[in-house]
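Q: For a teaching session next week I want to show students how multiple molecules come together into a single three-dimensional assembly. I've collected the sequence lines for a complex. Could you give me the predicted structure tokens for the whole thing so I can convert them for display?
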Amino acid sequence: MKKLLSFKWLLTLLLVVITGYFYSKDGVITSSVVSTALIFGLPLALAAMVGIMCERTGIVNIGIEGTLLFSAFVGFFTASATDSDFYGVVAAVIAGTASGVLLAFMSISWKMDQIIAGTIINILATGLTSFLYKQGHTAPTTSEIDIPWLSKIPFFGQVLFMHGPIVYIGLVLIFVLYVALFHTSWGLRSRAVGEHPGSADTAGVSVFKLRYLNVSIAGAVGGLAGAYLSLELVGSWDRGFTAGKGFTALALMIFGRWNPMGALAAAMFFGLTQAVTNQLMFSQIVKIPDQFVNMLPYILTIVVLAISAGKVRPPAAEGQQYEKEQA
Amino acid sequence: MNKRITGGVAALALAALGFAMTPASAAVKTIDESACGSAGAFCVGLVTDVGKVDDKSFNQSSWEGAKAAAAKAGGFSKYIETLDPKDYASNIDLFAAKKYNVIVTVGFLMADATAAAAVKYPAIKFIGVDQFNGSPAANYSGLIFNEDKSGFIVGYLAGYLTKSGKTAAIAGGPDTIPPVRKFIEGFANGVAYAAKEQKKKFAKTSTVYYSGANAFNDPAWGATTAKQYLSQGYDVIFAAGGKTGNGGLAAIAKKKGAFCIGVDTDQWGTVPEAQPCLVTSAMKNLAAGTASLVAQAKDGSFKGGNFVGTVAAAPYHALASKVPAAVQKKVTAVTAKVVAGTIPTGVKQ
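A: Of course. Below is the structure for the complete assembly, covering every listed component.
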């Protein structure tokens, strides 16, 4: 544990030093790269929150990809129909929640195999959105809000305070989830249900209700991630729009040890490698084959994961059905 | 699953019913698949590259051309969307087994599979959109374009539009795909040509290639990369490459004062969200090229080898007011010279 801690801080320190060095060399590019890292990383971080919320209460969710795709779709077309980005985001969150409720229903009430339940969500989302998709629509998108005063700070202003509203909401949400999960009674109960539902039940916690609640909230977070993709980042929707982000998020969740802060850090690291990769190609200082450069984010993530992982342990009751009588 | 079933079973059942009731005749109009292979029937099958037939770009234009030409010849047309590169050959086989007359395969990546199929099915005519055909087969024609010319023309325009002197090209797809590379390099050379003409010193056009499993299908990557460019002061960006490029266009549209340039087709109509920035598109006349080859297959003038389709820059549409009249004139003049070959693009073929 001590070794891990030192590696983590060492890596952070290294990144800060490197960033500082490059900032002194070229402020514009460095701010742009770090800001891009956040843009790359945020949807992945939010998607990883979906996984964390579910798995911490003992429900495996591999349907994140489907949730993102479906909510991005609903968000975009609602915004298009109502001509309001706000309604679009609300609709996306509702759609995400609905997919969460569906997962809860299948895996908690019907006691289905949770991997199958997640797969159903993915297949359903792909099929349904592909079928209903109509091309040629445009929708109003959320616009960037430069936070007064704060956005004027050199470097940090551009990196943190010149984004669209969902970035701010998403970042705050991740901190809130972290605090809620580790510093409130709701969090303690949630984690207990995920580790040992029998004991939690004995202590008077309704396993059933809590799992339903958390999986639904997770769906809402996924809906926000979907809205971010279609209404804030890209401003359009297309078939297969999410391109595997839901699955990358699952890996980042494990990388972050089922901890919101850990997953956020993992997602930001992954985003940073993507942004740096781009910058390498932009500047064309070194001519490396593009295929190789494009592999860098994945290779670096695997390397860092291999060094830092140590012993990773998922919640003990993950993927298991809870039967009251057998507890 | 390598095939999208478009009510195939029902159509087949209906066809069988119709066949039983009316005696077979050499119909001029081929209305369904079951008639393919009979005398007088004309069936055109199209296999998309990985990606959808409504990708607002490549597959879509080729399909529109094939469909229109088939309809004009009184024939039947149908498409199969490829979901996995492993299925190229088997998707072609599906059409061949039903005795289609013409099979159109879309995309550079399908060249090998198409060349092999042309040998395997000598009676069927193959049209390879975007495929350079090096084989001697008389029943296989590659529809190729001088992408470098198309890219050069829009690059020339970009060179006159940029205020910061920083232009960029985002490519969905790796530079090992010649059409992708030729577009991008043509663009860069076009910008340089315009810079020289204006006696200005621009930074070399920055280019970024995206390879990997989702190279053409990751709009979020395209959008994020476009934002990264925008935040560094790049003000004219060429976004080329399927849905990845479309994502880039949509993101650039949100930035005031920046221009974006589309690819393959006139993306004004196909990516409406890009309209605020879309000044033109580097077009290959895919639909026209595919249609002429299908028509050739019908009237018997079909030859092997390669058929060079035409290229152009798409109209400015509503952004015409942002392009000074003098520049428009220059672009028109340069377009003619580039197409004719009097201005070399300087791109390795």
